[in-house]
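The passage that follows is intended for readers who have already worked through the single-chain material. We present the inputs for a multi-component assembly, then the predicted structure in tokenized form, and finally a short commentary. You are encouraged to pause after the input and sketch how you expect the pieces to fit together before reading on.
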Amino acid sequence: MAYKIVASQCTVCGACEFECPNAAISMKRGMYVIEAAKCTECEGHFDKPQCVAVCPVENTCIPA
Amino acid sequence: MQKLLQLQDFGGPGAKTLDEVRREAAQGGCSSTGGSGKASCGSGAGQGDLSPEVWDKVKNHPCYSEQAHHHFARMHVAVAPACNIQCNYCNRKYDCANESRPGVVSEKLTPEQAARKVLTVASTIPQMTVLGVAGPGDPLANPGKTFKTFELVAETAPDIKLCLSTNGLTLPDHVDRIQAMNVDHVTITINMVDPEIGAKIYPWIFYNHRRIEGVEASRILSERQLLGLEMLTARGILVKVNSVMIPGVNDKHLVEVNRAVKSRGAFLHNIMPLISEPEHGTVFGLTGQRGPTAQELKALQDACEGEMNMMRHCRQCRADAVGLLGEDRSAEFSTDKVMEMEVEYDLEARQAYQAKVEQEREVIARAKQAELAKLADETSAIKIQVAVATKGGGRVNEHFGHAHEFQIYEVSTTGAKFIGHRRVDLYCEGGYASADGVEPIIRALNDCSAVLVAKIGVCPKDSLEGAGIEAVETYAFEFIEKSVIAYFKDYLERVGKSEIRHVVRGDADIRQGAFIET
Ligand code: SF4
Ligand code: SF4
Ligand code: SF4
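Having made your guess, compare it with the prediction:
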């Protein structure tokens, strides 16, 4: 029950960081990563995972 | 201070002193009385049909006044990487294509680094009067970082003007904050007011926590953009509108966009050519969508001009550019260097420089009026375009072989009008002519009858001549507009005496790729 970011595709724009309702996304050593323990796949907050919806690159925020 | 003095010396070796020029100018022209003369020389000073209040706000803004951009500089800092919409001419690996050139990546800064950089640059370069946040994504999709940067800069440097650019989606939510922070210009990129057309430009937007696609996305975007525009103008904040001209998609429609934004109070409209190359990896780049030619762009700008002020000197420069527009000094101010430099913010020295420029501009405006007066009894219907090689200060002061770009003026008996820049590859590299030779430059200047330069070699001069473009060194180090008008007068005389034949010139190329000084 968590999402992850495909590092090789991420543009490090940070759009997902602002949108995550659980503050699960943060910058680690120059890359954005999702902390699996905090990610709820946006259940109870929104009907779609926010990181997927805002990310400009297809298939970059994906189920882990 | 040493630097300051150097910067004030605009002209080259052969330039006249300010006083000489002033004496000359005082003999002719519309008025010879200091300040009051300025009003009667309105158009000469570049005011056009802007109201005095608006002119007062923009006259020293390099992005808004084609005159000011000879003398003042703005700086953009890349503090806003995230974006909330997708444009088909943007590949988000690079900076926002609305505000800088596609295919450019700028160094991302934290608000603290950015503020420090701004202050360092401003204390070294007195021309630096404007700070913009324009990307690399959408500043209002990163409101925390954008406003924090403004706050930090305003604390130390209250004289620096703040501006920001946005795609407009979240603009209505931030209008109060923008007003509270004293931001004096906002640029909104508006490419359509018809969602059907929008759907061909924007595949999706992210709004109210949902990704919205198709016509609905553009309907919301357009509504939000126009609402934001109305809210800003109602509060007296200046709004410029940028539009990207995409042939076959929104080119004809932009006339309608022009009307819509003018009626809502935008003070300036800047129509930019689509820049689209497959290697940028944008949707338009990959589908082979072409950009407009120079004449197509000019025709559209002319069609809109009766409606409102058009901006023609934008060259979609880099979002982190430092220095006078086009003269990029970013390398001197890398983040590492900036963090080490001592900063002493000298407000007085900056004001002294600005006062000096004020004087010089008045002189330039008068010199132009004086020259124009000599055309008063000419009645020819001839209209030509003239290219100018310059490195700033409003003078013809660049060597043909060293020019990265040319300024293009349209001139007729009614006067000289700046219509745009043409970028070119350097003709002369390390003393040798470049491999492609002069051909690409000829293509870029193909719609011009002449090119005014400080100096030019015999070979390129002959090649230009062969293509019907006269290379002229007579006006080296003179003021540009005055020279363009003087050349035109001479041109008319020679046509009158049948020494030369007037030829209507063809279309020209708009060069693709980023404007980066190397
Ligand atoms: S799915 Fe939702 S909770 Fe998980 S990282 Fe993405 S935005 Fe955060
Ligand atoms: S939105 Fe996508 S591209 Fe941007 S930082 Fe997050 S994962 Fe990377
Ligand atoms: S608004 Fe700018 S950053 Fe966002 S998709 Fe469009 S061009 Fe790219």
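Commentary: The helical segments of chain A are 15-19, 50-54. The mean pLDDT of chain A is 87. How closely did your sketch match?
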